[in-house]
């Protein structure tokens, strides 16, 4: 996989991995979702001393537009080349923050998330000290990991513009029609001798009280 | 339905099932088995001459067995395709001495007794799973007498009885005496909302279906006595409450309580015993007919498709969406979407809404002729590779080729690689880099986690799709568990290299948990089989080294099992407490030798 270093903002390379590691750490409060059981600003202050970290701060909503703007500005102003967002699950907002990195001219894979909400503040709601200790560990783990992240590029794959719909009931029929009306070829597979499913067996249906077929 | 049948962009395969799906988003290769119809679908004009002469009479499935059909038949008048279909198990055959009547009657000679099942291969970019539901079979709830009393019907049978296209042309007759019933009762939640029998979930549609039925009855037969036995009426949707009010205003009597027992009286009517929980009294109601508002179960094909497409199920048995709020129609497998009751019980409007949403999500991928592939793939260093072939053997996608004889180093076809990382974990020579989940990245997480107070922590590996999602679900559900658990995410449990485990123990981890999808549910076909084998191997090595093997645990936790994740964490904490500082120090000494 290639090490990209070509993306630039204002002609200035911000993605050169031979450069020194400059990490930005953002510990999200998520309103009170995280902040009520984790001392977010305290964790951020400790993280500022970790190797490679240039900026570390608490942020009220990292995913919000002002939050993202603040991070993007920091990237530009401080030549940050790796970002740790300690907020919710990467399963939720990793795409959001990867996009943010891309917009800021960084490779999206130079992001690391620490899951402080689903896997910390929400599951240790009554143990603030222990939750904060855990949050600290999770941030520390993310910082050490992100230093080793590589820039990755996505290859292109051919997309067959053709869909398979399994099941010819009301849902399958509607999906097939919507796709077909948009010019997609649809293969509709139904195990019974006719499409229609259970819906076809019903008498008048709510709220129009007309026949279901 | 007819729109779908006529649409130039839609090919309908009926009597067909998906037998095999290979490939990945953009390029799924699908094998469809189409059973023989024995009638030429294109030529048949549905004139019905064949059925007229067919001597075989069988119950009509479409009318829930309340009427009959022939061995060659049209499924129902508006069927799409309209062609007749012949059931080969019922047909007497084409030997002229036995029957052959339909063949002789068909002017266009559409009937072909020698038609055989067909296999169709299709390449598609996306797959929409709309496999629907299975109505609950109330046989098990014998107190309602469904199998014993003819005048006890299911709601679906009732639908056919009041349907103008049904066996009685929409005239409601009770089965025993073919007379119009004067009174009728509906029993709600049959097969739903019960911890003991049937399903524990609410089937979502039965309340409104019953309310609709009471209105249909009250419209046609104003003097009919209509009673509904219920736990709660769930009229939560747009316009639902209004319909419920109309039903009550029309004179339908709602009685809060589910009957305990139903008896048949000599004239075929039914005596229902119910504790009315609104008044606190035991009541008896004599009714001419009873309708069981049956619930909804996952379609029988659910599990087979789940395995074929690498999907996940909820504990209810319906398909699990990638995210309950933000990706409610996406499967965790890219390029696969859900529509309708396959994802959970829902009514027609919701099914249609979800179907359109699924179409839009699929279109989003299909609007261009190419899409971005997974960047998280593995790569072989040809200088370190010894061409042993283990990586190719463990790859669930056959994405790795290696020529052992010619000693050609292994090569990963990145387009086919889904990024589970099993190859990197299994490579004995450290020749494979799993990008974004490299040894260096994961080891640095382990090391920094165990830097301080290692003896107090629970090192946990969780796969992205099931166990990590299960941990997230525990969070969403606010389930509390010991705060010393630290999770390291890998895409698949197959990525958890033996050396990660030794690294953990060497750094003072008291206990280690490896967690992944249940066997059969692996997001990477069967990569978790290798996890299981690997953990077995490590357990044996631990025994040889004099380490307690139970300090390394393997658990399967699905994305829906938040409760289980929390429980496993509590168990791990108990286990951790059993590991003394001395034991940890001894372990470190043994491993550093």
Would you kindly provide a written description of the structure presented here, covering whatever features stand out?
The complex is a heterodimer of chains A (213) and B (593). Chain A is of the alpha/beta class and 213 residues long. Chain A folds into two domains: 139 residues, Rossmann fold (3-Layer(aba) Sandwich); 40 residues, no CATH class. Chain A contains six helices and nine strands. The longest helix of chain A is centred in the middle third of the chain and has 19 residues. Chain A is elongated, with a radius of gyration of 24 Å. Chain B is of the alpha/beta class and 593 residues long. Chain B is 27% helix and 23% strand. Chain B has a five-stranded parallel beta sheet. Chain B has a four-stranded parallel beta sheet with strand order 27-26-28-29, with helices on both faces. In chain B, strands 2-3-8 form a three-stranded antiparallel beta sheet. Chain B is globular, with a radius of gyration of 30 Å. Chains A and B meet through helix 3, helix 4, helix 5, strand 7 and strand 8 of A and helix 1, strand 1, strand 2, strand 3 and strand 8 of B. Strand 7 of chain A pairs antiparallel with strand 21 of chain B, so a sheet runs across the interface.
């Amino acid at each position: 996989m290639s090490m990209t270093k070509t993306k630039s903002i204002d002609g200035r390379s911000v993605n050169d991995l031979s450069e020194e590691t400059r990490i930005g750490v953002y510990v999200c409060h998520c309103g009170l979702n995280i902040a009520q059981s984790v001392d977010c600003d305290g964790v951020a202050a400790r993280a500022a001393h970790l190797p490679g970290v240039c900026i570390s701060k608490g942020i009220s909503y990292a995913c919000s537009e002002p939050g993202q703007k603040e991070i993007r500005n920091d990237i530009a102003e401080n030549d940050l080349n790796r970002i740790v967002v300690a907020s919710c699950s990467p399963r939720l907002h990793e795409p959001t923050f990867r996009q943010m990195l891309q917009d800021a001219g960084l490779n999206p894979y130079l992001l690391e998330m620490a899951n402080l909400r689903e896997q910390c503040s929400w599951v240790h709601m009554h143990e603030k000290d222990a939750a904060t200790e855990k949050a600290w560990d999770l941030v520390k783990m993310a910082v050490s990991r992100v230093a080793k992240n590589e820039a990755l590029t996505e290859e292109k794959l051919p997309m067959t513009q053709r869909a398979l719909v399994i099941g010819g009931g009301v849902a399958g029929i509607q999906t097939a029609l919507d796709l077909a009306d948009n010019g997609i070829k649809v293969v509709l597979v139904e195990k019974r001798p006719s499409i229609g499913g259970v819906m076809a067996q019903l008498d008048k249906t709510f709220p129009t009280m007309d026949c279901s077929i | 339905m007819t729109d779908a049948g006529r649409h130039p962009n839609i090919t309908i395969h009926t009597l067909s099932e998906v037998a095999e799906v290979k490939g990945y988003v953009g390029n799924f290769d699908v094998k469809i088995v189409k059973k023989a119809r024995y009638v030429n679908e294109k030529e048949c004009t549905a004139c019905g001459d064949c059925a007229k002469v067919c001597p075989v009479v069988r119950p009509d499935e479409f009318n829930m067995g309340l009427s009959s059909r022939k061995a060659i038949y049209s499924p129902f008048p508006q069927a799409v395709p309209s062609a007749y279909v012949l059931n080969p198990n019922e047909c007497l055959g084409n030997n002229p001495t036995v029957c052959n009547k339909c063949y002789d009657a068909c002017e266009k000679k559409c009937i072909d007794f020698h038609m055989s099942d067909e296999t169709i291969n299709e390449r598609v970019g996306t797959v929409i799973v709309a496999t629907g539901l299975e109505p609950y079979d109330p046989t098990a709830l014998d107190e309602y007498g469904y199998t014993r009393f003819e005048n006890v019907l299911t709601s679906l049978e009732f639908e056919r009885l009041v349907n103008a296209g049904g066996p009685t042309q929409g005239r409601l007759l009770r089965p025993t005496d073919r007379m119009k019933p004067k009174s009728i009762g509906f029993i709600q939640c049959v097969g739903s909302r019960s911890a003991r029998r049937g399903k524990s979930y609410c089937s979502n549609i039965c309340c409104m279906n019953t309310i609709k039925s009471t209105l249909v009855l009250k419209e046609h037969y104003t003097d009919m006595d209509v009673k509904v036995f219920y736990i709660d009426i769930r009229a939560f949707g747009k316009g639902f409450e209004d319909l419920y009010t109309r039903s009550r205003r029309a004179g339908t009597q709602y009685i809060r309580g589910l009957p305990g027992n139903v008896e048949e009286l000599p004239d075929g009517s039914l005596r229902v015993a119910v504790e009315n929980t609104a008044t606190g009294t035991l009541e008896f109601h004599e009714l001419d007919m009873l309708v069981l508002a049956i619930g909804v179960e996952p379609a029988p094909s659910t599990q087979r498709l789940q395995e074929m497409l690498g999907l996940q199920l909820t504990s209810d048995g319906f398909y699990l969406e990638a995210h309950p709020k933000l990706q409610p129609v996406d499967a965790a497998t890219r390029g696969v979407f859900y529509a309708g009751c396959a994802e959970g019980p829902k009514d027609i409007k919701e099914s249609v809404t979800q179907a359109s949403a699924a179409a839009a999500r699929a279109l989003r991928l299909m609007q261009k002729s190419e899409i971005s592939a997974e960047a998280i793939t593995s790569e072989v260093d040809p200088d370190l590779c010894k061409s042993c072939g283990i990586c190719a053997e463990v790859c669930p996608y056959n994405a790795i080729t290696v020529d052992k004889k010619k000693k050609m180093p292994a090569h990963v076809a990145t387009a086919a690689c889904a990024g589970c990382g099993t190859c990197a974990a299994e490579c004995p020579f450290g020749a494979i880099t799993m990008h974004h989940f490299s040894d260096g990245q994961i080891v640095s997480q382990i090391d920094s986690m165990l830097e301080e107070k290692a003896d107090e922590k629970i090192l946990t590996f969780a796969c992205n799709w099931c166990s990590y999602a299960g941990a997230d679900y525990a969070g969403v559900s606010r389930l509390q568990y010991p705060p010393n658990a630290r999770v390291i995410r890998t895409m698949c449990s197959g990525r958890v290299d033996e050396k990660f485990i030794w690294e953990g123990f060497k750094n003072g981890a008291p206990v280690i948990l490896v967690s992944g999808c249940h066997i059969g549910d692996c997001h990477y076909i069967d990569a978790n089989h290798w996890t299981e084998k690997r953990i077995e191997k490590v357990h044996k090595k631990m025994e040889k080294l004099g380490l307690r093997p139970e300090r390394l645990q393997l658990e399967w936790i699905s994305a829906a099992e938040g409760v289980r994740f929390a429980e496993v964490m509590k168990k791990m904490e108990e286990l951790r407490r059993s590991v003394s500082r001395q034991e940890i120090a001894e372990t470190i000494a043994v491993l550093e030798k």
